[in-house]
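Note to self: keep these together.
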Amino acid sequence: MINSDFAIRSIKVNLPCRCDSTDGKQVSAEICRACAAKEDGQITEITIRPYADEDVDVVTSIWLGSWQSTGIPAPVTLEELRARWPRELGKGWIVFVAIDGNQTAGFLALHKDVLEQLFIAPDYQSRGIGKQMLDFTKARMPEGFHLTTALQSRAGRFYEREGLRRGEISTHARFGHQIVRYDWLPVNEVLTKRDYQS
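Structure:
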């Protein structure tokens, strides 16, 4: 069974070049790193497709392995994640997986206006896959979305670099570490809110 609220074919994601600025603004070296990495073959271009039931083992393994790679203590087991997975699907998670050839490189889970999960397999981290999946999420949720991530993780810097706005800090209900909220709004929505507040 495919987990999706509409029919979607697998799509090939090509990382766009952000150095081709047509608005006359100077492009920072930070942005140019994406193009340099692509030229050096460090960017893995992926296919994103809807989750299917046979993905459960690899997706939950990525979930655990990616979380463990953050170094933030949380006593979660693979068995616990596999037991939780069908409950989350039942609550309405819409899940997509990132595929490199015949390997699963990561997954994301959406629910209403929330990016619930975005995890990349440790062997695939720092290869542009997170950006491609985040861009996919922005296209899929053009009205905007929010997420939370561990304050101590490097994910926060990634989300800020990709245009998400940092919000409030709170405490994870189960594990006690600090988490931070990030929001993404399309540019025209941000401008409208600023004009309204002025």
